[in-house]
Structures are given as C-alpha cells and as structure tokens.
Amino acid sequence: MNKTEIAEVLKEIGVLLELKGQNPFKVRAYQSGSRALENLEEDLGQVLAEERLDKVSGIGKALAEKIETLYQTGELPFYQELKDSIPPGLIEMLEIPGLGPKKVKALHGKLGIETIDELTEACQNNQISALEGFGAKSQEKILSGIKNREAYAKRHLWWEAFIIAESILEHLRGLSGVERAEYAGSLRRGLETVGDIDFIVASSTPSPIMDWFTGMDEAVEVTAHGETKSSVRLAGGLQADIRVVPVDRFPFALHHFTGSKDHNVRMRQRAISGGYSLSEWGLVREEGGGRKRFPPGGHGVKAAPGSPEDIRDEAGLFSFLGLHYIPPELREGLDEIEAAEKDGIPRLVEAGDIRGVFHNHTTASDGRHTLEEMVRAAQDRGWEYLGIADHSKSSFQANGLTEARLEKQVARIRELNLSEAFSVHVFSGVECDILPDGRLDFDDEVLATLDYVVASVHSSFTQGEKEMTRRLIRAIEHPSVTMLGHLTGRLLLAREGYAVNPAKIIDAAAANGVILEINAHPRRLDMDWRHWKRAAAKGVLASVNPDAHDVKGFEYVRAGVTVARKGWLTRASVFNTRSLEQVREYLEGRKRGIRIV
DNA sequence: GCCGTTTTCGGCCCGACTGTTTTCAGTCG
Predict the structure, then answer these.
(1) Are the CB atoms for A374 and A367 separated by under 8 Å?
(2) Which of A6, A236, A373, A555 has its CA 20 to 30 A from that of A410?
C-alpha cells in the first residue's frame, strides 16, 4: 500500500473508533497521524527502512507499527476487525449534515438502523422524531440531507469558488456598516479544492449584512440565519458561511477561520506556552499566567511589545507571538511556524511578478483563438513574451501538429516577431508528446528549429510507477527538452494522475536543468504544491503555465501562482518572472548545451 | 494514541449554533 492509501486507512480507523465511542483523543491521534503521513515529503519506504517513522511529529510507536504493516502487507488485522464490527452504512450516514458519530450511534443502538435506506424509511414512519434527542426538525433535516447527499459532500475546484467568492466579497465590501471583509478557509489558503466558502466581516451592525447575505441571488437555499452567523447553499451544492464580528475581533476571526486546523493547533499551543489562550475571539491572558517570552525557551524573534488589545491585523497577531507574518498559503501546519520564528518565511512570488507564459495553444491544434488573438491578449495583459506550444502529431485527439504544420507555425511566428506588430515577443515551442517508451514525438532536427520544448504525457496512462517514471526521466534527459508538462496528468475531482515518483523526477530535473511546469489550469494544478518546496531546494525552476486554450485561459496564471506560493516559491524560483532578455539568454544558452540555473 | 526545557503520566483547543431541551448534548468549524 502506498502512503496516500495508508493515510486513508488511518483516517477511516479514526472514524470507526469515533462510531465506537472511543476516547476522542485517541480518535484525534489517528486523524493527525493520517495527516502527518499524507504530508510526509520523503519516500515512505526509505523512512521505514531507516526506522525514523516514529520520529515524525504526530506518529508514535503504535501508529508507526500499523503503518509499516500496511506498507509491507497491505493489510492490518486491527483495522479489519474494527471494520467488520461496524455496518458500512453507518459511515455513510456521517455525510448527512447534522449527523455525527453520537447520533449515528444512537440511531443504530435504539432503532437498529444500519443503512441509509433504513434511515429514510424510519424518517418517513416518523420514528426519528419520536426518538429522544431528535425531533421533527431533525427528521426533516435528515431527509433533505439524504436527498442532496452527493451534491453536499462534493468538493469544488479552487478556481470556481474563487470566482464566486471574489464577486460576493466585492458586494459585501460595498454594504454600509461593513468595515472589513475577507474570505477565509481553504479558499484563502489556496488549496486545490475547497469544501465551502467562509466570509468574515467586521461590523457593528450585523443584522442587515445577514439579511443581504441570505437574500442574495447566488443563494439557492438558506441553511442557517443567525444574528452573527449565517449559511447558504449556492448553486452546485457549495455552501457559503458568513460570520460578522466586532472590528477589534476581526484579525483573530480571520486567522482562525483561515486555518488550517493543524496550523491553528500549533498557534494555540504557542499562545498557551506564553500564558495566553488564543481563539477566534482573541488572545486572553490565562488566569495566573503572566506575559512570558515567546517561545518560553527564548528562541525566535523578539515578540512585539504591547498587549493583545493593540493587535489590529494578522501581522500584529503573529508578531505578538514572536513570529514573522505567515501568508495564508503557507498555513498548513507543516513547518511554517518554526520558519516564522527565525525569519525563515520567504517573500513569495506574486501574480504581478509574471512577465510571460509558455504553455499555450492556438487554433493550429485544439485552441479556440488564433495566434494573433493570443498575442494581442498577452499584450493587453502587459506581458513581455508569449510562448506558443501546440500539441504534437501523436496527440491526434487534440489535432496535434505534423512536422509540416509546425514548420509553418514557426515561420509565421518569426514573421510576426519581425513585423513588430505587437510589443510581445513570441517564442515558438511545442507541447511534445512523450511516447510510451520515453522517446519524443519529433526528431531532434525538428525540435532544433524551436525556441523551447514542453514535454508531456498524453497516452498510455496506465503504465506502472517504475515504467512511467523511467519514461519521464528519459524525456527529461533529452537535450532538447526545456520543461516538463503536467507531471501526473491528474484532473482534479475527475481523474487520478498516472503513477509516477515525484522525488525521482525532481532529482532528474535538477540534474538536467529541466524546468518543471506548474500547470495552472484549475483542473490540473500539477505538479502539486506539496512537492515544490523540496524541488526548489534542489534548484529546480518552476514555470507557471496556464495551458491556455483561449485568451480567457491566461487568467489561470493566478491559480498557478497560488500553487507556487503554497510551495514556498520565491520569484527567483519561477522562470517566467524573468525579463525577456533573461529568458532569451536562458533558452539560447540551453540550445547551445549550456546549463544555466 | 501522542507528547515531553512541567519527560512515562496526565494532559490533549474552544466557542457558537441548533434543536432539543428546561439547562444541555451534539455538531461544526
């Protein structure tokens, strides 16, 4: 079993123990162990071989043993016995809003309900409303929850949530009485998919804001309408929550609801160690606990003087705890707090740093806009250069270019550059298929006529990890390859990526001076942010590539920059923040076989 | 089950909201 699968098992064990009514801290230990494993950057096999797994924070002796068993055998008797002792329908019931482990346990214990169908029937027979701890409303809510189960449980692409949240935020900020407003949660942290949208608003007059929010056009259903907190269901099942807080609480609420949970736990622990209790409401001195230094050990930056009342924004909160500001994208509870202690938070790349993009299609293959239309749109964005990389001949499903058509395109691009019709310089490239054996789709002589080559996999997705990794490395070692396209080929919420070993690809890219793409298409966001910190440390450059198939596709750069930021990337690690001159020099140097970093 | 400059026991984040109650448990984030 691989790392991700084992993490899933641990998570499920947590849920099963919860349904059994086990010690909630034990449950939490499995959940945090699962997350720790998921976030493990190193190769699990290696960590196990070196017997270092129980040194990972959140994984102790007991979990390490279970993980090792799962890794070696793919099975775990403890897990199997647990699973056999609980009807699978109970786990499904947890997806229904309002039903947690205690209530599911009660339904099972008192009515013997084991499946969703039986639950539906019990609702229809009014058996639920008669149950102690339940009532007519619970019964109704359960029924509607069952009906919309799929839509509610679904996650949503970051980009889709981002677009709608930006528009709601703009309205919120325009309402009278709104002093500050932001969205929080995984959306603000830039996670590739989000479960819901959280808005945090500072105001002393919440009532009209609640009314506007629950009455806005985007809301298809109001699920809660309180004095300071409301929830609505948007089209597609996405839920949006709003919380209104007094302005002096705003930084605490924003930080709290931005999360992640792991990050918050660590922040709270840090506050506690200094004699304070941190919550979404503020920072309160503990009874008997005086102001101590942060952290008490005496390491870290000097904490800001003053009292919690002086905190006006998130930066003030971090500073009070002796930390440098941590951008939302880094708040995953990995090692950002340790870094912020010692001024180790880099200045992250920003959308405005991007000066051109490389992986774009035109009507020559499967794009919807012509070369000229794409160049004009790039110029309108203020970019200095644009790379055209249409598909190669083997991608016939995408109308891939033959040698002859590619030659024609190269000539047209040369003419366009000479005509000086646009201020944007156009680089001619190709998104060249990596064939199943790792060879490229075009001969070296053809590739030599181009400014750069993006090499991508578009076929034989089902190869095993070893074969696929070998295939990609062979392409990376090809002297004509400038960058590697979408590492795993995943389509978020739709298709798993092909099996590939990212660590080995990163090493190969570093050794051969090949740039790795951050494919910024909202469905891809590939290579994943989780690998970037390590890749950059090895000197691998990223290129934020929108994979635009029309001029609107350029907007996806924003999503790609978010991935880069989540991967701790600075401007220096992102190739397309370089000026036209620097890019030209780099590409020409590579063509002469000179490795430039 | 994890963790430890309070180190092998005794902690483990906490508050709002809902629906059920009549003072609170469970869920949620």
Answers:
(1) yes
(2) A555
User: Is strand B less than 7 A from the beta carbon of A74?
Assistant: no
* Angstrom distances, CA of residue A523 to CA of A102, A193, A233: 37, 9, 23
Asked whether strand B has any atom less than 7 Å from the CB of A279, the reply is yes
A549 sits within 7 Å of strand B by its CB: no
Residue A305 phi/psi, 5-degree rounding, is -75, 175
Comparing CA positions, the residue from A57, A2, A55 lying closest to residue A32 is A57
Distance CA A409, CA A449 (A): 11
- What is residue A196's three-state secondary structure? strand
> A180-183 and A196-202 as β-strands: parallel, antiparallel, unpaired?
antiparallel
- Nearest in space to A559 (alpha carbons), one of A251, A220, A105, A157: A157
Q: Would you say the C-beta of A20 is within 7 Å of strand B?
A: no
Summarize chain A as % helix, strand, coil (round to 5): 50, 15, 35
What's the rounded Cα separation, in Å, for the pair A154 and A151?
A: 5
Q: Could you identify the residue whose CA is nearest to the C1' atom of nucleotide B28?
A: A98
C-alpha angle with apex A290: A287 to A292, nearest 5 degrees?
Answer: 135
In the structure, how far is the CA atom of residue A314 from the C1' atom of nucleotide B7, in angstroms? 34
Domains and CATH numbers, chain A: 3-84 (1.10.150.110), 88-153 (1.10.150.20), 156-245 (3.30.460.10), 251-341 (3.30.210.10), 351-591 (3.20.20.140)
Tokens representing A443 are 């001969």
* Separation between the CA of A25 and the C1’ of B2 (whole angstroms): 9
**Contact status, residue A358 vs residue A387, Cβ threshold 8 Å:** yes
Cα–Cα dist A473/A310, whole Å:
54
Provide the CA A504 to C1' B24 distance, Å, integer. Answer: 55
**A105 CA from B6 C1′ (Å):** 38
Spatial separation of the C-alpha atoms in residues A187 and A328, rounded to whole Å: 10
Predicted structure pTM score: 0.81
C-alpha–C-alpha distance, residues A211 and A218, integer Å:
13
- Residue A385 β-bridge partners: A356, A425
> Letter for the amino acid at A313?
D
Per-residue pLDDT tens, chain A, 597 aa: give them. 988 889 889 988 998 998 888 888 898 899 889 888 877 878 899 999 998 899 888 899 999 999 999 999 999 999 999 999 999 899 889 988 889 999 999 999 899 999 999 999 999 999 999 888 899 989 988 988 888 887 777 889 999 999 999 999 999 999 999 999 999 999 999 999 998 999 999 999 999 999 999 999 999 888 888 888 999 989 888 899 999 999 999 999 999 999 888 888 788 878 877 788 888 888 887 655 444 445 433 344 445 557 888 899 999 999 999 999 999 999 988 889 889 988 899 999 999 999 999 999 999 999 999 999 999 999 999 999 999 999 999 998 889 999 999 999 999 999 999 999 999 999 999 999 999 999 999 999 999 999 999 999 999 998 899 999 999 999 999 999 999 999 999 999 888 889 999 999 999 999 999 999 999 999 999 999 999 999 999 999 999 999 999 999 999 999 999 999 999 999 999 999 999 999 999 999 988 876 555
